[in-house]
Amino acid sequence: MGKRIVIDPMTRIEGHLKIEVEVENGKVKDAWSSGTMARGFEALLRGKDPRDAPYVTSRICGVCYSVHQLTSARALDDAFGAKVPWGGTLLRNLAMGAQYIYDHVLHFYQLSALDYLDIMAVAKYKGRDKDLLAVKDKIVGLVKAKDTFPLTPRYKPDAFCVKDPDIVISAVKHYIDALSMHAKARNMGAIFGGRTPHYQSIVVGGFTQYPDINMVARFRTMLDEQAKFINEVYIPDVLAFGTGPLFPLAKIGLGGGHYNYLAYGALEKDPAGKDLVFPAGAIMGLDPKAIRVQRFDQKKITESVKYAWYNQDKPQHPYNGKQEFDLDQRDAYSFVKAPRYNGKPMEVGPLARMLIAKNPTLIGLVKQGVKPGAVARHAARAIETKLVMDACYKWCDDLLSAMTKPGFKIHDTAHWDPPQKGMGAGFYEAPRGALGHWVKIKNKKIDNYQCVVPSTWNASPRDEQNVRGQYEESLIGVPVPDPDNPLNVVRVIRSFDPCLACAIHLIHPKTNEIRKFTVQ
Amino acid sequence: MDKENVFYEPLKAKGISRREFLKYCGATAAVLGLSELTFTTKIAQALESASKKPPVIWLEGQDCAGCTISFAGALNPPTASLVLDKLSIRYHETIMAASGHLAESAYHNTLRQGGYVLIVEGSIPSADDRFCMVGGRPFREIVEEAAEKAAAIIAVGACATYGGIPAAGPTKGMGLSKALPGKAMINLSTCPVHTDHLVGTILYFLATGKVPPLDEIGRPKAYFGQSIHDNCRRRSYFDEDMFLKDWNDPTQKDWCLYEKGCKGPDTYSDCSIRRWNDGINFCIDCGAGCQGCAQPDFYGGMTPLYTAEGERSRKILARKKAGLIPKKENSGKGVV
Predict the structure, then answer these.
(1) Run means of pLDDT, 10 residues per run, chain A, 520 residues
(2) Which residue of A154, A208, A501 is in closest CB contact with B63?
(3) Domain B11-221 has CATH 3.40.50.700
(4) Given A266, A302, B91, B141, which is the most exposed site by the fewest CB atoms within 10 A?
(5) Contact, A326 vs A311, CB < 8 A?
C-alpha cells in the first residue's frame, strides 16, 4: 500500500474540503474527496414561503451568491408560471456579469496564483520600474520584519513554480491590484444588485431595482476599468503562464479526469433566450479532434447517496431527492451526494462550457498542445471572462434602448403570489459550473427543495458502481515526487475553483479516525 | 432621585418596564464594565507585543465566505494594505498560502503565543459536532480553544453572532454569544458583515487599543444605534400608507416597501445612511426591503421575507396604527 497524504483543511477555496490521496512510486494511485461541513439548507426551506428561497439560497455561497439567488428565482419562475420581462432578464444578466468578472479574477490571483509562484523571487528583481520596486520593497520589508503571513508558510516551490524575478514580481503586483479590481467589480454589481455579497434585487418574476440612465452610465464606466484590467493584465497573465512556464503541466494534461463535460447553459443574448453566451450540452468521453456535443436533458440527472451521509436510497432525480442526514452510515465518507448524468460522472465549469461552445480560442490552445486539465481550466476561465464582459456592453445598450420605450417592465407582477401547488426547475451556469435548483410547492409553501451544485458534480464521492467523482479521478496519476509538498494535488483541486459550502456534505467521524493520517 | 431612577424615569415614560431596564443594565455592565476593561488591557498588550502588527486568527465554521468577501471589498484603505501592512493574518483558510498540516501549524504556533485578535465567521452546529469539522476536529472545540488566549474576539456576520440562517435548520447553528457564554466579544451582525463595520472596528483597535462602545447585545453603538426605519428615505411614504405594489411602475418606485416584507422598523443598523459597497446602493434602495439581518432572531424570526403576511409584519403595522412608530416630522422630539 502506498503512502497516504491528507490535506485538511484544503485552503484557498470556498468552504471546508478534505483531500486524501494514496501515493505510490511518486504518483497518486487513489483519491478521496470529502466535504466537512453541512448546514441543511434544503431541509430548512421546507414549509417556508417559496419567495424566501432566492434570498436564503444566496447564503449557500458568499462567493457566488448571485447564481444561487438567480437559479432559485428561475426555479420559482417555472413553478409560479412567471414570465420574466426582457428588462428583468437584462438586469439579472448585468448583475450576473459583474459576478463572473469578479469571481474569475479572484480565483486566478487570490486563490490559485500562489501555487505557481516562488513569491520570494521578487527579492532578486533588478529592474527599475517604480511600481515593481515598490512591490519588492513591500515584500522584502515583510521578510525583514520576520512576518510574511499570510504568504507563508507555504509548500516548498517545485520545478513548475515560476522563479524568474521579472515574471514573479509583475504577478505579485497583479495579485495586489486584483484585490481592488474585484472589489470594484462587486461594487459594479451592486448598482443593480443592491449590494454585495448577496444581492437583494433578484426575485421570482424578475427584478426589484428600477433602473435609470445614471445607473447604466455608472455601470458602463466601471466596466471600462474592468475591461482594461481583463484585456491588459488578466488574460495576458493566464496565456503567458499557460503557454510559457506552465506549458509542461498543460502538455501532460495534469488533472484531466473523466473527460465528460456538462453545461446547462446561461446568459441570454436575445429576448427569446435562443442565443446564449454559454450554450447547454453534454460531451461524453471527449475526443479533442472531433468534439461531439449532445443535447442537455435534465431527466438524465440522478443523485446517488451510496457513500454519503444520508438515508440510503437508490439514485433519485432531484425532484424526488430527500436530504435527511444520517451521520452513522458505515460506508459514507462525504456528505456530497454523487450526481450522475446518464449514470456517468461529469465535469462542470469553464472548461466544460468552452468545450461545449467549441470556443475557437480554447480549441486553438488545445491544438497547440494544451490538454484538457488544470491549466486548460484556468485558460477557459479567462476566455469566458472576456465573453461575459463583451456581453455586458451589449446588455447595457439593450437596457438603455428598452428602458426608454413605453411599457418597459422589469417584473411579472401577475405571478408574484405563490401557487397553491406546483413544481419547477431552474438551470444556470455558476462561475464554477452547472447549477440546478428544484422546488415543489404545496399549500403555497415549499414542500421539497433540492440543489445540485457545481461542486457536487466535481467533488462527488464514488457512486453505486464505485466510479470515482471528477476531483478524485483527476488526481489519479498526478506526480507527487515529494509527499511533504503535494503541490500538484492542490493545483489540480484549485483549478476547479471548489465551492464546498455549496456542496453540503460532512465527514464521517468513524471513517475519519480510520483515515486520519498526517503527512509524514 | 437615586442613581438608578435618573436613568429609569425617562425610559419608563417610553413604556419600558422596570424588569426590562434591569435586564438591560446587567447586560450593559457585563459588556461595557468589567469586560471592556479586560479587553482593553489585553489589546494594549497585544499591540506592544513583539510583532509590530497584531496577529489575527480568522476561523470559518458554518459559513459561506460572504464575510470574507465583504472584508476583501475594502478600498479605502484597500484590503491589500490591511492584510500586508496593518495586520498579521496568521490563519485564514480562504487567503493563506498554506494548506493542510502547514496551515494547522501556523494556527497552533499563534495559539501558543496568545494575544491575537480572533475573528470568527459562520455558526457552530449545536445539534451535532459532526456537522462542522475542520482538520478532523469539531469546529466547536477549535473556537473554544482559540477564544481562551485571544486578546479580543470579533464575531462577524449573522451566523457567527447569533446563529443566522443555520440556526433555523437541522444543524441548529449557534452564534458565539451562545457558544462562549460569559466571554466578551464584539458582534458585527448583518448578513454578511458590512465591510465598513469590520474595517472600522479593526482601525478603531489599531488607533486606540480599545473596543468601541457596544450596545446591550455586543454591537458597536456607532453602527447599530439607530433603526433602519429612522433614517429610511422611504419613511414619509410609510407615514402616508403609500406602499409599493408594482415594481414596474416608476411613480411607485420610491414608495415604502412594507408590503414587500420590509422589516426596517425592527432592525438596528446604519445601512440607510452608510449604504453598502462604498455607498453605491443598499437593500431598500434597490427596491427589496430590509430583511432584518442585523437582528439576533434573523432568519427564523423574519420569515416570510417578501410579504407582510407574517406575524412580524403584522406587529409592525399594529404598532404603526397605535402610534408607537413616530412619524418622520416628529422624530427626535421625544413624541411617541
Answers:
(1) 75 74 89 74 92 95 92 98 98 98 94 89 94 93 87 85 92 94 97 96 98 97 98 93 85 94 97 94 94 95 81 77 72 80 96 97 91 95 98 98 96 98 96 94 95 88 90 92 86 85 35 25
(2) A501
(3) yes
(4) B141
(5) yes
